[in-house]
Amino acid sequence: MSGIFLTGAVFAVCFGTGFFCFRLTETKREEYLKKMEAELADIAVTDLKNVPEPAAAGGAQLVTGCVAVANNYFLGVCASIRNLFGGEMHGYTRLCTDARRMALVRLKLEVRALGSRCICCLRYETTVIQMEQQGNKRSAAGVELMAYGTALLPPEGKNA
To answer: Could you list the residue ranges forming a coiled coil in this record (predicted)?
Structure first.
């Protein structure tokens, strides 16, 4: 009987520690994203393919922002429980949203380094990073999300 109690206590401590660490990193990530999005708000982003000729007078360059997000054990446990009852997995939705935001922030940082303030033809691509096959089951280790677009460079001698 004490073995079951000890096992349950160890699980509860590990689960609680995981939850605390998850919340801490989530809070830090949210603060960082808000700060960077505010700093980079002056960079215009559009998904238009065609740009008016004067806007592209300085040239254009492909820019990318990439982020790889590992699956979180805590989210995995919550998603497994959610699978029993059905419905949206809010934790994974939040994780994907944050990954898109982080990829866009990294893209804008690259654009700023080029001296540009405009991105057109913004696109997102995702790739599932798979772990080794275990039996008949393949599990995902994480997801890579890449934002890419075209930075419109200012004409020579002009600042963006």
So the answer is: none
